[in-house]
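FW: tagging you since you asked about this chain on Friday. Here's the raw sequence from the shared folder, copied in full. Didn't touch anything.
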Amino acid sequence: MSKLSQELNSSEREQLATHETTVKAGLQTFYEVGSALLAIREGKLYRQDFTTFEDYCHKRWGFVASRARQLIGAAEVVANLESVTDVTLSNEAQARVIAPLMPESQQAVWRFAVYTAPVVNGNPVISTPHIKKALHTVELLEQYGWKGALQPDRALLIDPELRALLPLHDPYTWEQLERSLLEFGKPIAPLDVWGKTVLDGHARYLICMKHGLPFEVTQREFDSLSAAKIFILESQLLRKNHTPDEIAAITVDLEAYQAAPVEASSLDYCDKPAS
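HL: got it, structure written out here
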């Protein structure tokens, strides 16, 4: 590779001016700013007046190089998601949630976020917390062997707050459940969901997604998040496979939620998902 001349040629000066106009306008979009900074860094268009890209960012724009990398990373996320859906990220904070992931995992998270998004006035509403729930779901699916194939009607969310209410399966119980599902071909009972969020049946959902097994759902409706949590805990108490310690812990949680102030529900739970 030939060494770049220290002095910019006329074409490079024009490129620099164009990209710097975008950065200076800053309020346009984080994608445009990040793309412009990426082009400046990759083309070394800062070299005439600055020794390094870090020095350029600090002296020309007043931010450290790590901030530039955030913007560049966010722009790269947007570019990576363009082939997934017409729905785009709303802001840089959303891009930063999935920026650390490999490109394939970024796309998987965004598919889950879009396919499970509540709809208001015909448009999907995708918040940063919603993307975090999609990220949690994909991380669990990948942990349990899911390979990434996804149809919109099979996309459900596993909310870490709701999942934390349930006792986790030990390896033996998980193996027995997985074997049972494979033998029968699908779960015997439908998964309980609220909108597109799993309330009961997290393990069954993960196993069905891993093996491509069909599943059915029963839609539940609640006036509040508190009511949904109480439903989850009461459903668990009806099961016969819990240990005495687990039953005691579930009972304590149930009584606490019954006595606590009502938690309002959010769009992520109670609105119809995007089709």
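FW: Residues 94 and 128 are 5 Å apart (CA to CA).
HL: agreed, and Strands lie at 119-120, 123-124, 191-194, 197-200, 217-219.
FW: great, closing this out.
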